[in-house]
Design brief:
Elements (H helix, E strand, L loop, with lengths): L1 E5 L2 H4 L13 H11 L5 E4 L7 H13 L7 E4 L3 H4 L6 H18 L2 E5 L11 H15 L6 E3 L22 H14 L19 H20 L12 E6 L12
Parallel strand pairs: 1-2, 1-3, 3-4, 4-5
Antiparallel strand pairs: 2-6
Helix pairs in contact: 2-7, 3-5, 5-6
Amino acid sequence: MRYVAVGDSFTEGMGDEPGDGSVRGWADLVAAGLAAAGEPVQYANLAVRGLLLEPIVTGQLDAALALSPAPDLVTLNGGGNDLMRPGRDEDRLVQLVERAVRRCREAGVRLVLLSGADPTARLPLGAVVHRRGVGLTARLAERAGVLFVDVFNDAELHRPEYWSSDRLHLGPAGHRRVAGLVLAALGHPAAAHVVAPGPVVGRSLRVEAGYYREHVLPWLLRRIARRSSSAGRTGKQLEWVEVGSGVRERDLRR
């Protein structure tokens, strides 16, 4: 099995940092889960944080399909960054996904399409972004002949225990749950991870001020400067790696 993941920060694994300076994430855990099922796995992850959907389904997907040997399985997610910006064109986003579906079908590669998790309950202007996400997710689910994993509407992931401190990216528990959803969709016996409810944390003025200073303001400054978090970055694993050296099977069981 040769599995390559393409996408943005969701697929790169932001929010799931084991503490050694690396970024893990659900796609790494899916590769580990496939290997744990007894199947030799080679894995690559071309995802780059901050990317819009178009460069994901053009340059990034093209690079994935050009890997040698060719991949057997591709997971694709994108569009979340588009939904957070003014002037998004939902029809254009759907057309880009359809292009990706055609490219994989023509290449004889199995494609798994994912919607991103829904972070909007605790984000500024979250209701607006939520409406956009609902519409796009519904249209992606209509793609015939493609395995679709609806992470956006997973009710369990709406709980704050699954999210990192920036409220935009999943934390380790969230990535672990998404990995279980994907593995189950692929027919592997993996239960989606569930965590116990944590203590209720009040959103005091001090807490909110700290959140806006640490997370919202830097994001706004990047938007004003028209500078993406993807600038200067490449995918985290550009070539095939044998699962067991670059990905740890034991991480799936934590």
